[in-house]
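User: Predict the full complex structure for these chains.
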Amino acid sequence: MSSHFPLARLAVLGTGLIGGSVARAAHRLRLCRELALYSRGEEREVVTAAGIADVVTEDPIEAVRQADLVVIALPIAAMGPVLRTVRDSLDSKAVVTDTASVKLPAMRLFQENLDGRVRWVGSHPMSGGERSGFSFARSNLFEGAVSILTPPENPDGEALALVETLWLSLGCRIVRLSALEHDRRVAAVSHLPHLLAAALIRSVDCDALDLAGPGFRDVTRIAAASPEMWQEILLANRENVLAALRSFLTHLDEASVSLQTETGAALKQFLLEASERRQSFEKFPS
Amino acid sequence: MSSHFPLARLAVLGTGLIGGSVARAAHRLRLCRELALYSRGEEREVVTAAGIADVVTEDPIEAVRQADLVVIALPIAAMGPVLRTVRDSLDSKAVVTDTASVKLPAMRLFQENLDGRVRWVGSHPMSGGERSGFSFARSNLFEGAVSILTPPENPDGEALALVETLWLSLGCRIVRLSALEHDRRVAAVSHLPHLLAAALIRSVDCDALDLAGPGFRDVTRIAAASPEMWQEILLANRENVLAALRSFLTHLDEASVSLQTETGAALKQFLLEASERRQSFEKFPS
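Assistant: Here is the predicted structure of the two-chain assembly.
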């Protein structure tokens, strides 16, 4: 663990699945001497009752005060207002990161609000799933996950090390990418699959749904996730999602033509390449 | 358990994942006094070594002799030759079932070879997954799965009860459908999802694949399955798969248009309906 840990004060803004899990892990692993959480509405009571934080507040300024690391785990739409509210109250030595699923818009908010004031590094821990909210948060949510860091153009080494150590402590494998490249790749492996799962479950008649086995269950699981969250993600990354969709449709069309023309050899080759690719993927570190 | 169980002799033709799991379950649950398996090639040695059967033979005639229930767990391409080989050696009181994923062609083979000689009932246990072969067979594979029975037009009550009791004993929930209706519905919840998963994993660049999280893993898992088996299934059920694909593409296009035109409300409605549908599905008995 870097010499900065345990942190004097860690602030987590947002206590949904991701923010709540960061908080639970920080508490369990004693990553900070003081843990401050910004939580709103009904969830705040549940978060307070969990007894993991020193401060649970509806005031983001109170949460970030004297924090050496601030993790913003809020929808992108909420990130801007919160950043404008807290930017003058951040410690000049603080490092700010976020957990947004689309990094270009998050980076722009950091640039507008923090550049020249406070150091920042973008993060995207590829965890989560179909459930949301603090009640599903767990301290081991990030174990074995990839956390993608999207640093600014000329990153501060210390800030980068601090954010990297946070995710490493939580059990992540680190990948560094530009925000642009992050958004392109994640469109393909996360955002498009969500859209496909949603379209698939909508396209199946209820009488057929009753027959579905574990394969269908797996394929469509992510479609159960929060529509509000996914609407925001898909719109924020629409150009990349549409490009990934075009690529997918090209491949699907190839299979469809093989089926229509009953070209068994081509269909088998299509399935063989997919199978090999999926099997080699299973061997990747996760 | 029906009065026919334990069976005097159960014959399972084919010892891949499905046939092997039927055999393992029959052994564990003592569903028969004698268990005879038809197994070929290298797998036969492994099956013999498992010590679960009284007879493991490369001769299907030897396997079916005096069996009161015969389960054919072979690819459709192998079913015809085996049926022609064994039909004159079947006990006149025997009942024959199969486990093929597409029921119309399997039904035609039963009609051609067994009608007027021996009673038959089609079965399709909706289990399996991305792995195949005897080494993955397990006695609890069918627990909690749906088994779809596709009886002939004027089914024999006793034959139907016998096959139904087999799958109930193995832990299945039973659904009865015509072969036609089976093939239509299963195209939507099993065959099309396989094609989509294969097209998705092919469409993703390797650099993006390295970032994939548990969601992507779930969506694409089934694509790892045997290309030979799936080529046969998709071609055998091509009309229904193509119809399911058209329905899927209509829904996907709806989402794509919402994204292209940045119509957030429509996109959210699309995702909301998918999420509700997926959540209600999770409550179904499985």
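The domain at 182-282 of chain A is CATH 1.10.3660.10 (6-phosphogluconate dehydrogenase C-terminal fold).
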